[in-house]
Amino acid sequence: MEATARAHTNIALIKYWGKRDEKLFLPMNSSLSITLDRFYTTTKVAFDSALKADVFFLNGKPAIDAETTKISRFMDKIRAFAGEKRYAYIESQNEVPIAAGLASSASGMAALAAAAVKALGIEVDGRTLSILARQGSGSACRSIYGGFVEWQKGEKADGSDSHAVPLLSEDDWDLSILSCLVESKQKKVSSREGMKRTVSTSPFYKAWLETVETDLAAAKSAIAARDFTMLGRVLEANALKMHATTISANPPFLYWQSATLDVMQEVALLRERGIEAYFTIDAGPNVKVLCERKDEETVYHALSAIPSVREVLVCHPGPGIQYGPF
Ligand code: PMV
């Protein structure tokens, strides 16, 4: 009645931005991501009939109440799926740099779903696991698979066709993803709140929806053809378009800080020098820069030299769900 699973975090190239169903975590649009090798969560789940509530340890310490509540709510969904009544001991270890503003919810919820289902001895396929993980955090559904992954938004009201599908494995196209960590003092608007506000108030949100599926199709063609220029152009434009919906929301909000712009400008300079690099930004100030492996060192040095960048972490495509012991 105990199992351990590991999931890696992912970075969206075509963004998931906006929910059509808040409870089931159903997205307005399909999205596409790369699972990263460097950042992951390892979670052990043990069900125990003596427990009166779930007990959650994060990085070796009892988690704060808000975290435990969030985890326990997700466990309720897993219990409902499995027809299980017992509570569980949950121990998570996050290999995501502290305060790096890198989302650990994707790897966290994916690892928890996989470990809990395994602990209950239930055999599930990737699609079912992806549907479960999605209900912990939308982007978690993509972390079930390694490499390049598409989350198909689905059409059904019950969410049974809203799940990830693998496009290319982590060994099929070895790109470099450089994660630039910048100083951040500002309290951020959560992705949940950010999505809600832009969907209901941004006049640009309609344009986002009208064009995102075309971006996705272009990204998929580029991936199939290993066409880095085509992929880079569409992923950068898609990220900027997502952020345009936040700037135009009411009240408006902006995830960027001045250091975010420093990185964006350096990427433009690299391209002027003939080095192909493209950026993407999620619901925070950090920037992820993509390049081909042959340019990794040059891009790393250029980004590391930016005074407002604290650290540059080099990642590559990583694996899907793995089961322990580790
Ligand atoms: O699933 P969440 O709540 O972590 O939302 C993810 C939102 C973005 O990171 C901005 C985009 C994405 O597709 O991951």
From TrEMBL:
Enzyme class: lyase
Gene Ontology MF terms: ATP binding; diphosphomevalonate decarboxylase activity
Lipid metabolism recorded as keyword: yes
SUPFAM superfamilies, A to Z: GHMP Kinase, C-terminal domain, Ribosomal protein S5 domain 2-like
Domain Diphosphomevalonate decarboxylase-like N-terminal: 7-164
Documented EC number(s): 4.1.1.33
Gene3D superfamilies for the chain: 3.30.230.10, GHMP kinase, C-terminal domain
PANTHER family: DIPHOSPHOMEVALONATE DECARBOXYLASE
Protein name: diphosphomevalonate decarboxylase
Species per Swiss-Prot/TrEMBL record: Heyndrickxia coagulans (Weizmannia coagulans)
